Amino acid sequence: MARAGGRHIAIVQGHPDPGARHFGHALADAYAIGAREAGRHVEVIEVATLDFPFLHSRNDLESEEIPEVIRTAQSIIGHCDHLLLIYPVWNGGTPAILRAFLEQTFRPHFMFPDTKPGESLGFVSALKQRKALAGKSARIVATMAMPAWVYRWYFHPHPERNTLRLSGMNPVNESLIGLVEAADGRQREKWLRTMRQLGREGR
Questions:
Q1: How many alpha carbons fall within 13 Å on the CB side of residue 30?
Q2: Is a pLDDT exceeding 80 seen at residue 198?
Q3: What CATH fold (topology level) applies to the domain 8-20+38-183?
Q4: Confidence band (pLDDT; 50, 70, 90) for 55?
Q5: How many alpha carbons lie under 13 Å from residue 155 in its C-beta half-sphere?
């Protein structure tokens, strides 16, 4: 449920480096500043700082034994109205730790509340299930060294969009920010202003 005075926003910071600040962190900060300026409640999940194992089997995926940091993340996402997922593109795709986090968090019994832990779901039956995150929206922000049009055309993003949509989130918008390493200060300031405005608007 949204908090009084604005929507409740969850930011998932997917940069895999826990020890340094990157442009993706500045973009997320700008979004959070704009959201708070508009009276929105913001919670941030820093994936790189979380201690959780990778899933190695279907039994792991369907187990009721969920790491506490993942349960906390599920609670934050479950209570938000809008999700911002931000990450750098590495080797043409999502960083491994972020993919592992999404696999851990978006388990079948989290996305589909009428199922039970351990219950197997095929794709068709999953589509028919009540979706826990219906009514929520999301935005994916991906930064990259390549031109954004190359990423969109050649790499066909994003598998994580499918995860968010399958859980019921709609719409799932995207902001692809290319050539970040070549950008000058004015271009970076423009991107930061755009993110701050998106945060004010809660989208």
A1: 19
A2: yes
A3: Rossmann fold (3.40.50)
A4: very high
A5: 19
Beta bridge partners of 140: 85, 174
The secondary structure of the chain, three-state, reads: CCCCCCCEEEEEECCCCCCCCCHHHHHHHHHHHHHHHCCCEEEEEEHHHCCCCCCCCHHHHHCCCCCHHHHHHHHHHHHCCEEEEEEECECCECCHHHHHHHHHHCCHHHHCCCCCCCCCCCHHHHHHCCCCCCCCEEEEEEECCCCHHHHHHHHCCCHHHHHHHHCCCCCEEEEEECCCCCCCHHHHHHHHHHHHHHHHHCC
- Residue-averaged pLDDT of the chain: 89
> 76-119: per-residue pLDDT in tens?
999 999 999 999 999 888 999 999 999 999 998 899 888 766 56
Quote the CA–CA distance of 79 and 90 in Å, as a whole number.
30
Residue ranges per domain, the chain? Answer: 8-20+38-183
Nearest to 44 by CA among 17, 20, 80: 80
Provide the whole-model pTM: 0.90
- Residue 6: both structure tokens together: 């604005």
117 neighbors 59 (Cβ within 8 angstroms)? no
Mean pLDDT confidence for 145-151: 90
